[in-house]
Amino acid sequence: MITEPLFTLTAGPVQPSAETVRALATPIYDQFDPYFLEVYETTTEKLRVAMGVTDPPLIMHGEAVLGLEAAAASLIASDDVVLNLASGIYGKGYGYWAARYCRELLEIEVPYNQVIDPASVEAMFQERPDIAVVAVVHSETPSGTLNPVAEIAAICAQHGALLIVDAVSSFGAVEVDFEGWPADLVVVGPQKALGGPPGLSLMYLSDKAWAKIEANPAAPTASMLSISDWRDAHRADVKFPFTPSVTEIYALTSTVEQYLREGPEAAWARHAKVAAATRAGILGLGLELWPVSEEICSPALTALKLPAGATGGAVRAHCREHFGVMISGGYGELTESLLRIGHMGPTAHPIYAAVSIAAVGQTLSDLGVTVQVGAGVEAAMASASAVSS
Amino acid sequence: MITEPLFTLTAGPVQPSAETVRALATPIYDQFDPYFLEVYETTTEKLRVAMGVTDPPLIMHGEAVLGLEAAAASLIASDDVVLNLASGIYGKGYGYWAARYCRELLEIEVPYNQVIDPASVEAMFQERPDIAVVAVVHSETPSGTLNPVAEIAAICAQHGALLIVDAVSSFGAVEVDFEGWPADLVVVGPQKALGGPPGLSLMYLSDKAWAKIEANPAAPTASMLSISDWRDAHRADVKFPFTPSVTEIYALTSTVEQYLREGPEAAWARHAKVAAATRAGILGLGLELWPVSEEICSPALTALKLPAGATGGAVRAHCREHFGVMISGGYGELTESLLRIGHMGPTAHPIYAAVSIAAVGQTLSDLGVTVQVGAGVEAAMASASAVSS
Amino acid sequence: MITEPLFTLTAGPVQPSAETVRALATPIYDQFDPYFLEVYETTTEKLRVAMGVTDPPLIMHGEAVLGLEAAAASLIASDDVVLNLASGIYGKGYGYWAARYCRELLEIEVPYNQVIDPASVEAMFQERPDIAVVAVVHSETPSGTLNPVAEIAAICAQHGALLIVDAVSSFGAVEVDFEGWPADLVVVGPQKALGGPPGLSLMYLSDKAWAKIEANPAAPTASMLSISDWRDAHRADVKFPFTPSVTEIYALTSTVEQYLREGPEAAWARHAKVAAATRAGILGLGLELWPVSEEICSPALTALKLPAGATGGAVRAHCREHFGVMISGGYGELTESLLRIGHMGPTAHPIYAAVSIAAVGQTLSDLGVTVQVGAGVEAAMASASAVSS
Amino acid sequence: MITEPLFTLTAGPVQPSAETVRALATPIYDQFDPYFLEVYETTTEKLRVAMGVTDPPLIMHGEAVLGLEAAAASLIASDDVVLNLASGIYGKGYGYWAARYCRELLEIEVPYNQVIDPASVEAMFQERPDIAVVAVVHSETPSGTLNPVAEIAAICAQHGALLIVDAVSSFGAVEVDFEGWPADLVVVGPQKALGGPPGLSLMYLSDKAWAKIEANPAAPTASMLSISDWRDAHRADVKFPFTPSVTEIYALTSTVEQYLREGPEAAWARHAKVAAATRAGILGLGLELWPVSEEICSPALTALKLPAGATGGAVRAHCREHFGVMISGGYGELTESLLRIGHMGPTAHPIYAAVSIAAVGQTLSDLGVTVQVGAGVEAAMASASAVSS
To answer: For A221, which DSSP code?
Structure first.
C-alpha cells in the first residue's frame, strides 16, 4: 500500500485546507432538501461576490474540461470565424474543440515558453475583421505562463468579437476581471487557487454570450454539455436538470468562504509572493525557468527546465518517495523536460517554497546533478522575508 | 439558516454511512500521485468484483446522466434501429437521447405504474428483426417499479441486438447480472444503493459494446461524452483524459468496500426486506401503492399514491419541517400525485420503514387525512420481525 | 467485525449531529497555538452565555466523573457536615465520595423511582443546622427522574449551606438555573444534551464555592483532581496546567454554538416534546414507566420497567442486532429490570420516539412478550403531532 | 479570527496524519455499544503488540499527567524510599508528586542540558539499599534529551527496586523496551510520536507493579486517579468504571494501526533521521544545541539555544505569523532562552527539517540575528539525503 503524500505541490488538484476537508465530511443530502437548496443558492451568491460580477455565475457538474468543451459547443456557431490563441498545450488544444463547431479556425501560435503578443491579435483583426469569437488561456498551466488577457480583451471588445477565457488555474491566484476586461465566457476551476476538489466547472457568461448561445440552434440542450440547462438552476425554486454533485458543492461553498474571508487582494498578493519566492529559489539552485522571462510567469505555478542528467519521471518519483513531496512534470511533449511546482490556494505561502526548493534540490543532488540546495532555499526565504516585503 | 435534515429517505442521493463520510474527509491529492493512482486502480478492481464481471468496469466523471447520454452517443450508430422500452419517465426520456443518434426509433410504452412485458419485446422483434439496440431501465426510479430485464435481455441476445440498461438505482439493491443476462452497456449510479455521492457514472460494457463503439465513427472522442477516452484510464500507467473527481473516487472505494464486506446477497436481502416492510406499512396506513402490483415494485424505493386532501408539496414540506424526514415527490407529471420513499444503501434497514411510515402517516394526519399511523408502523415492523423472517 | 449502530438512543454518550462530527475532524493543534488559544477562550465564553452565568465557567479535562470527584475533594472540608440526597444510584454514589472528605455524612434516601421531597430537606436542616454542604443530582440518569433542585436550592440558600449539583445529563435538556437557584458547584457533561464526546467536565462555581475551596487546605492542587489549577486557564495569556484535550474542545465549541443558535428555550421545548412522546409510546405499548409519576420524569431519558418474560440483556442485544438501535439497560442493581431510552441533544426530536418505540416494541414482540407496537408508535406520534402542539 | 497553522512542529501535541483526522470523524457511540466494545478491546490488543509486551496495557482517560500522577499515587506506598532522577523540568516535577506519597525522597539532579549517569544511580543504591522505587523520564521533553533508561533499569532490577518511566514523548520515536529493560510502570502519551490527540494515558505495568499496587492500602480506587479500576476494562465483558473518551479511542486505534503498519523499527529510524537532519540544520544555521552533546539528544524533539538578540516569544510569534509554523519555546524557567522543534509522528520526515530550519532561520534573520539560512537547510537536507543514507 502506497502511503499518502506529505505535500501536494503540483499543477493541481492542490492540497486542501483543513477547513475544506471538514466541509467534505458533510453527509450527502438529497438535491431537493431545503438545506441543500439553500447551500446551492448561497454558494452561487458567494461565488458571484468572489468573482466580482453582477449576475449569478453558473456551475456545471464536471471537471473544468466540461465547462471548456461546453463553451465551445454552445458559443461557437457553425458559421463563426474563431481566432484561437495558442501559447501552450492547453491553448493549442482548445483549437481542436473550436474547430469542431466553427466555419473557420484562425490561430496565433507562439513558442510555449512565451505568451501572446496583443499586437498580433490586433493585426489579425485588421486582416480578418470577420472574427466572431476569440479563445485564450489566462494561466497556461502546462507552461507556467500568464497571458495578457486584459490587453487582448480590449482588442476583442473593440472589434466586436466575443472572448472565451480559460481561467481555470488563474482565478484566485491573480485578478480575473470578468466584466472589466471584458470577457464573455470564462471557465474557472475549483481545484486550483481555491483549493477544492476538481469535479466542477465555474462559469461566467456575459449578456452577449447568453444572447449568442440562445441564438445558436446547435447549442446543446438536454445534455451534459448544455450550459443553458443550468442557467437558473441556482434558484431554489427551479429544478436541477440532473443531480448536482452534492459533495463538490459543499467543498465549493467552503473554499469560496475562505477566499472571501481572506479577501481577493490578499489572496493575490500571497500567490505573487510565493511565486516570486519559488522563482528565486529555482534560480538560486542554479536552474532555469521555462518561461522566457519572469514577467510572464504565472502566479499559480512555476515551470522550470530540467537540467541535463535528470529526467522528469526520475525526479518526480524520487521527490515523492524520499521526501513525500508530489510535484508535476511537464505536460504532453514537455513531460520529461520540465518540472512544474504548484503554489496555489492553501499552499500559496512562502514556506512551501522552502519545501519545494529543498525537495527538488536535494532530489537533483541525490540523482547526481549539481545544484546549490542551500542557496536555493536561502534565496526563496529571503524573497519572502517579512522585512523585505 | 435551514437545519440539516435528520433523515434522507428519498429517491436518491441517499444518506451515506458514517464510514463513507469518513472517506470523504480524505485530503484531495493530485491525480498522478501514486497513492491516488493506486486508489483508482484498486477501486476499479473492487468494483469489478462487486459487479461480478470479467473485465474492469469504467468510471465516467459526472453524474449517471453522463453515462446514459454517453451510452446513446457512443453505442448508437446513425443507421441503427433502436427499440426503446418506456415504462416510466426515465425510460421515456431515454428515447429522446436515442432518437438523436439513430436512424429510426421504435418504442414500447406502457402505463407508468406497470412494467414492460417481455412478450411485447419478442413480438416487436418478430415485426422488426432489424432492431440493433434496445434500451431499458431496470429500476424505474420515478415509478418505483422494476422491469424484468433478465427476460428482456434473453430476447435481445437471441435476436442479436445490443442491450443498454439503466441500472442506476437497481445495482446494489437487487441482482444486476451484467454478463449473465447478458447486457451490453449498463450504467450504475454510486448515489443510490451504494450510498455514495452522485458525481460518477459506473459503466459496464460487453465486448460487443466495445466493438460497436469502436466501429462507430460518430462515437465521441476527446470529449466529456466519450466513453472510449476512459477505456484504460484505470491503469496506473495510463494517463487520465482529464482530472478525475478525486473525492468522488475516495467515496466510491469506501462504498464498494462496504458492499463487498457485507456481501451482495446480504445487501439484496436487506433491500428486499425493507422494501416489503415499507409496502406493508403503506398498506397498513390505509394508502395505495402506485405500481399495479407488489410483484413489480422496486426494492430500491416505494412509490405510493397521495390520498385525496393532500398535495405532494405540502406533505413533503411538513414531513421535512416537523419530523426532519426528507422524502421524494413524484417526478415530472407525477410530482404532486405521488410520494416516493427511498430505502437504499445505508437506509435499507427495516427500522427506517418505521421512520418513513411514522413520519408520512403523522404528516397526513396533521394535514387532515385519515390514516392509521399505528397500523401502518405495526405492519411494517411485523413484516421485518426477526421471528417471522 | 461488528457493524456501527444505526441509532444511539442510550443514556449517553448520545449520537452527535453531523456538524459535530465535522468539528471533530479538525487537525490537532498545539495547545499554545494562537488558533487553539482563541478557540479555548471563545469556547469558554460561549459556554458562559449558554449557561447564562456571569463569570467564565471552567473546563476540566476528563469525563464528568472527574468534575464530580474534584468537587467533593475541593469543596468539602474535613470538618464539614454534608447532606447527601440520594434518589438514585448516582446520588447514592456521591455520598461515598463526600464521605471521604467530610466529618459527618447525613443522607436522605428515597426509593429510586421517586425524587427528593424538598420538605424532607427542610426538616433535616431543622434538625441539623450545622450542615455545610448539600449534594444532589438533577437528572438522575440511572432512574430517568428529575429532582426539584430549584426548591432544594432555595432551602440550602436559606440555611447558608453550599449546594453541589450533578447536572451532567440535565443541562441542555431542561433549565439549569445556576445563579438563580442558586447553586454553588455544578457539573455538566458535554456528551448528553449537548451531543458531544464525553471527555470533559464543564464546571460552574459560585463565588462562595471559590471562597470555600481557597480556604480549604486539603483542596487538591497540582493534581488531576484540582479545580483551582484551571481557574484562569481559559485566558489566552495564562498557561494551561497540563495539555487540554484539544479535540474535545473542538467538539465542545461546536456543540455549544449549535445550542446557542437554536436557543436554550427551544432546545428545552424539544426535549420536553420528545420525552412526552416517548412516555406516551411506552404506555401505548402497554408497558410501565419506572418513575412513580410522569411529573418526575427526566426530559433527557425515559426509564421503563421490563415486562415479565424479557431480560434487559436480551432486549438490548436483539434491538441492537436486528434493528441497529442501541438503548441502555438499567444501571447497577437495576441492570436487568429496566430499560432506558435516551432522547438527548441531536436525538431529542419526536421522530426518534417512533424509532425507539418501534424497535423496543418489535423486539419485545419477537421475544414473545405481548405489546401493542402500533398503539405505541401511534401514541408517540400523536403526542408529537404538529397539530396538537 | 486567527487562522489555523500550516505546520505544528512543537513539543506536542503534534499534527496528525490525514488518516488520523478521518478516524476522528467517527460518530460518538455509546460506551456499551458492541461496536465500541470491540474497538476498545482490539485497540488494547494492537497497543499491546505495538508495545511488544505480554499482557494487555491499560488506558487511562485523561492526558498523560493523569497516568503519571496515578502512578505515583498507586505504586508508591507510605513507607517507601523513592529515588527521583531529575535531568530536566519534568523529572524534577515528578519528585513533587512522589514526595506526597513516600516516606523519603532521594534525588539525583543534573544540569538540564545533561542526562543521568547510570553510575550515579548505582552509587546511590550502594549508599541507600532501601530504595524501593525509582522514577525517571525517558525523553525529557523540556530539554530535548534522552536518558539512558536501559542502563538505569538494569541497576534498579539488580537492586530489587521498581522503576517508573515517563515515556510520554519517547514511545514511538525510539525503542521503549518495557519488559526487557525491565520497567515496572511506564506512561506513554498518544499525542507525541503516535500523532494522536492528547486525552489519554497509555500504561504498562509489570506483574511486580500490580502486586505492589494491590498491596498498597492507599492506592486510589473508585477515583479518577485509580489505576486498579481500569485493570480489566479492556475486556468486552467487563464494565468501564466510567465513560471512556470515545473519540480519543477512535484516534488511538488509528494511530496504533498506522504505527504497526509501518513497523516500529522503521518508525524509530525515521525519527532518528529527522532528528539528525534537524540538528545538522541548527548547527548549519550557526546556532547551538541545548544538550551538551548530540549523543544525548532525544529523537522526538530538538532543543536549541536562542542566540543573543532574540527572545523566545518574539521568535515563536514571528515564525507562526509570517510562516505559519508553530514551534515550542522552552518550558518553565527556560521559556525565553530555548526553542524546541518537534519532529514526532507524522512530522518525523526529513522534509519537515527543511520547514523548521527555513522558518526558524528566516525568522531570526528577519529579527536581525545573523544566521546562515541556506547553510542550515542544506545541511539538514544533506543529512537526509537518500544517497548518503
So the answer is: -
- The C-alpha cell at A127 is 486582416
Residue A258 one-letter amino acid: Q
C-alpha cell read off for A313: 519521471
Burial class, A373, CB count within 10 angstroms (exposed 0-12 / middle 13-18 / buried 19+): buried
Strands C104-109 and D104-109: unpaired
The type of residue at D302 is T
CB B357 within 8 A of CB B274: no
DSSP string, C69-109: HHHHHHH--TT-EEEEEESSHHHHHHHHHHHHH-SEEEEEE
Could you tell me which chain C residue has the CA closest to the CA of B377? C374
Segments of chain A scoring below 70 in pLDDT? 386, 388-389
CB proximity under 8 Å: B 107-166 to A: none
In chain C, residues 321-380 whose CB comes closer than 8 Å to chain B: 322-325, 349-351, 354-355, 358-359, 361-362, 365-366, 372-380
What pLDDT band is residue B250 in, cutting at 50, 70 and 90? very high
Helix (H, G, I), strand (E, B) or coil at D33: coil
Q: What does pLDDT average to over chain D?
A: 97
Is residue D336 very low, low, confident or very high in pLDDT (cuts 50, 70, 90)? confident
Instruction: Check pLDDT > 80 for residue C386.
Output: no
Asked if residue A261 lies in contact with residue A371, where contact means CB atoms within 8 angstroms, the answer is no
**Phi, psi of C274, rounded to the nearest 5 degrees:** -70, -35
pTM for the model stands at: 0.97
Three cell numbers at B274?
425493507
Tell if the CB–CB gap between B27 and A14 is shorter than 8 Å. no
Give B251-298 pLDDT, tens digit per residue: 999 999 999 999 999 999 999 999 999 999 999 999 999 999 999 999
Q: Residue B371's closest CA among B277, B286, B311? A: B286
Q: What is the pLDDT of residues D55-72, one digit of tens each?
A: 999 999 999 999 999 999
Option in D3, D13, D25 nearest C243 (CB): D13
Q: Is residue C382 pLDDT above 70, yes or no?
A: yes
| Contact between C327 and C352 (Cβ < 8 Å) | no
Test C96 with D222 for CB contact under 8 angstroms.
Answer: yes
Distance from the Cα of C180 to chain D's closest Cα (Å) equals 30
Q: Is the peptide bond before D182 cis (omega within 30 degrees of 0)?
A: yes
pLDDT of B386: 67
The whole-number pLDDT of residue A369 equals 96
d(CA B162, CA B156): 7
Average pLDDT over residues D249-277: 98
Q: Which of B4, B39, B40, B243 to mutate to test the interface with A (most CBs of A within 10 A)?
A: B243
The pLDDT, as a whole number, for residue A389 is: 46
D259 and chain A in contact, CB less than 8 A: no
Of C160, C81, C150, the C-alpha closest to C116 is: C150
Q: For residue C388, what pLDDT is reported?
A: 56
Angle, alpha carbons A179-A180-A185 (nearest 5°): 40
Put simply, the answer to whether A22 touches C18 (Cβ < 8 Å) is no
Distance CA B67, CA B51 (A): 16
Which residues fall within 8 angstroms of residue D22, CB to CB, at 6 or more apart? B22, B23, B25, B26, C25, D254
B248 interfaces chain A, CB cutoff of 8 Å = yes
The pLDDT-based confidence of D388 (bands split at 50, 70, 90) is low
Determine contact, residues D149/D157, Cβ cutoff 8 Å: no
The secondary structure of B58-120 as a DSSP string is EEESS-HHHHHHHHHHHH--TT-EEEEEESSHHHHHHHHHHHHH-SEEEEEE--TTS---HHH
Q: Closest residue of C to A23, CA-based? A: C22
Indicate the SS3 state at residue D44. Answer: helix
Written as one letter, the residue type at B82 is V
